[in-house]
Design goal:
34% of the residues are buried. This protein folds into four domains: 1-161, 2-Layer Sandwich (Beta Polymerase, domain 2); 171-303, cca-adding enzyme, domain 2 (Orthogonal Bundle), CATH 1.10.3090.10; 308-361, no CATH class; 368-411, no CATH class. The chain is α+β, with helices and mostly antiparallel strands. The protein has helices at residues 3-13, 18-35, 44-51, 71-81, 128-133, 148-153, 164-170, 180-183, 186-198, 204-215, 224-235, 240-249, 252-257, 263-269, 274-282, 297-307, 309-318, 322-329, 334-343, 346-357, 368-373, 380-394, 401-411, and strands at 39-42, 62-67, 86-89, 94-99, 102-108, 110-113, 122-125, 143-145, 172-173, 201-202. The protein binds adenosine-5'-triphosphate.
Length: 414
């Protein structure tokens, strides 16, 4: 593709234009011919393509490509065509190219060996058939070879050695072998996530083996990072709360966090955004159960503040003065207050809303410079005086800069 065409690709990708996805597939197809290897569309996109009423490339949220060789070379060439920076994960023989709201994942076809339950597998190059066998569920274990017929006319010859198409028809989530949930317990979360998203049921043996793996605590062997990622992905789903309720019912929450989410959780969480749901969820878990998770400082701060929020709401109920509300709420992170605003009622909620929409942005004209001009020695008293003026202003006792000056003189006994 020459420069002009590349530019077109980048501009149009933002709108996920059908022909652009088609062009990316075409580039990969031609690179596969050049390197004399086979390229396949695999995983989620194949599932979504087969489930779509209308067969076109618009349905692809991402592209998931498996290559029988040269994934690094082809990945690099595609990235340079797309003028994007590729990220390689050599340990897993994969690479990713991220464009504004679209992602292309490219991987070497591979098989996996799990040295122990719940740890990341060792991977080895393998055939496409072996690659499909290492996957999570039959509906995610199909491939479409990139051919001219597919790229031009969406005519797909589906590689489906494990019966994914039948399970799509029967609306079933089915694992590929009995040890699947033991090898990788994140599949417990994934199974419930896909079942809920697609309106599918767990196939009977799959459901039994899942309960068995939960009962035997394999989940607790997962790294915190992996559990957190799964919960984050769940909170992004439209049916997030249904999935969390199911995790609770199946005792996943209890195994991991030794607790039960209260009924209220589901009611309140329904008012929150995806990110807020996740942080609110963690506020029900004791620190010690996720202390090894690599969580952002800000996330932990909001969790801790939410955990202590009943004390805050008790105090808020009792106070009326605007300045008191201001100084009580000021130390809190805005994300905490935005959550509390949505999950509290009556006067408490009103006070939080008032703080967020008006009080927090109240400014005074008096500054440290003003105090210097009054010959006050710089020190902790500055903070005290400025806060007194701010409190007076919040409470409506002074309005203009002149009022502030008068009050300052009064404060200083001048
Ligand atoms: P989504 O629509 O949520 O993106 P997806 O199927 O594309 O769904 P990914 O998490 O992007 O999901 O994974 C891509 C593919 O990799 C899956 O379809 C599946 O074949 C395989 N896969 C992902 N995670 C696992 C896992 N834990 N065990 C086995 N195979 C997995």
């Amino acid at each position: 593709m020459h420069a002009k065409k590349t530019k077109k690709v980048l501009v149009l990708l933002g709108e996920k234009n059908i022909s652009i996805v088609q062009e990316i597939l075409d580039v990969i197809y031609k690179l596969a011919l050049k390197y004399n290897i086979k390229a396949y569309l695999v995983g989620g996109p194949v599932r979504d393509f087969l489930m779509a009423q209308e067969k076109n490339f618009k349905i692809f949220k991402d592209l998931d490509i498996a290559l029988t060789g040269y994934y690094q070379e082809i990945g690099n060439e595609l990235a340079s065509v797309l003028k994007a920076r590729p990220i390689f994960y050599p340990r897993f023989m994969t690479m990713t190219i991220s464009l504004s709201d679209f992602r292309v994942d490219i991987a070497q076809t591979r098989k996996e060996i799990y040295p122990q339950p719940a740890v990341l597998p060792q991977v080895f190059p393998a055939t496409i058939e072996e690659d499909l066998k290492r996957r999570d569920f039959t509906i995610n274990a199909m491939a479409i070879p990139l051919t001219e017929e597919f790229i031009k006319n969406t005519e797909a010859q589906v590689l489906d050695p494990l019966g994914g198409q039948t399970d799509i028809k029967d609306k079933l989530i089915r694992i590929l072998h009995p040890k699947s949930f033991i090898d990788d317990p994140t599949r417990i979360f994934r199974a419930l996530r896909f079942a809920s998203r697609l309106g599918f049921k767990l196939e009977e043996t799959t459901a039994q083996l899942m309960q068995d793996a939960i009962h035997k605590s394999y989940l607790t062997l997962l790294s915190g990072e992996r559990v957190f990622y799964e919960l984050e992905m769940i909170c992004k789903e439209k049916n997030a709360l249904k999935i969390l309720a199911e995790l609770q019912e199946r005792k996943v929450i209890k195994k991991l966090y030794k607790t039960q989410l209260p009924q209220d959780f589901f009611l309140y969480a329904s008012k929150l955004s995806n990110d807020e749901k996740l942080v609110y969820l963690f506020s029900f878990f004791a620190d010690k159960h996720y202390k090894h998770y690599p969580l952002k400082k800000e996330f932990i701060l909001v969790v801790r503040e939410l955990q202590k929020s009943s004390e805050l709401t008790r105090k808020l109920k009792k106070i009326k003065r605007r300045s008191t509300i201001y100084f009580l709420l000021k130390p809190y992170h805005l994300n905490t207050l935005n959550i509390l605003k949505k999950i509290t009622h009556g006067s408490v909620r009103k006070k939080i809303v008032n703080y967020l929409t008006k009080l927090k942005d109240t400014k005074i004209h008096t500054t440290g410079q003003t105090l210097k001009r009054y010959n006050i020695a710089p020190g902790p008293s500055y903070h005290k005086i400025l806060n007194k003026i701010l409190a007076y202003k919040l409470d409506g006792k002074i309005k203009t800069p002149k009022d502030e000056e008068r009050y300052l003189n009064k404060l200083l006994g001048r």
